[in-house]
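Question thread 4412

I'm putting together a teaching handout and wanted feedback from people who do this every day. The idea is simple: show students a protein as raw sequence, then show them the structure tokens that encode its fold, then repeat with a second protein so they can compare. Below is the first pair exactly as I plan to print it.
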Amino acid sequence: MTKRTTSPFSYDIVGSFLRPDKLKAARTAFEADEITQAELTKVEDEAIIDLINKQEAAGLKAVTDGEFRRSWWHLDFFWGLQGVEFTIPEHGYFFHGEETRP
């Protein structure tokens, strides 16, 4: 029997990371008109720099901004397509007993 010297698994960094609480709070405050776009951008910048530092410390050769400036990973893309109309539905998505924002 041959002894394996390398892992049989491979991986790729997709680019999307969970947002830190400070960034989630800033987005909520921005949506409630409690902070300006510039203030939100400052929080995003800080969160992105922190994430890049963590990725570099982990030894990643390619790093990402975590998609921290995106609202929805899929809808931001769809709204950029020609012929796709932006609407705000009455309800958000329902998932595991929770409702997302519409």
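The second pair follows. I'd like the answer to focus on this one:
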Amino acid sequence: MEANLWQVALLVAVGIVSGFLNTVAGGGSLLTVPVMVFMGIPGPVANGTNRIAILAQSAAAIGTFARRGFSELRLSLSLAACAVPGAVIGALVGVRLEGVWFNRALALIMVAVMLLMHFDRGATKQ
């Protein structure tokens, strides 16, 4: 895929915003994946590419939070152990879905995540 200058600028801008969102609150993928799909990148490729960005964002956030004393290694490892099976299953299902079915599943999941984030009032009560 040959990118135009506006596409590169859009990806850089959305990448910066989503990196900030992912580190502060999560949900940056709700911006990056649709932008890549809008630009013509197939859904599975956009999603897989987004995982690389999330890995880089997570590594930077882990280092920064740990240096500032905001980390609990035991809790982090137990949460990671719980997340890994879901990630593996999701990846296995994702690579088996054909283009249109992947896009439909991705759209449904993203809408569900947006609704959960919007209606989760428990997170705001502290």
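Top answer:
Good format. For the second protein you could add a caption like this: The chain has a mean pLDDT of 86. The CA atoms of residues 22 and 83 lie 17 Å apart.
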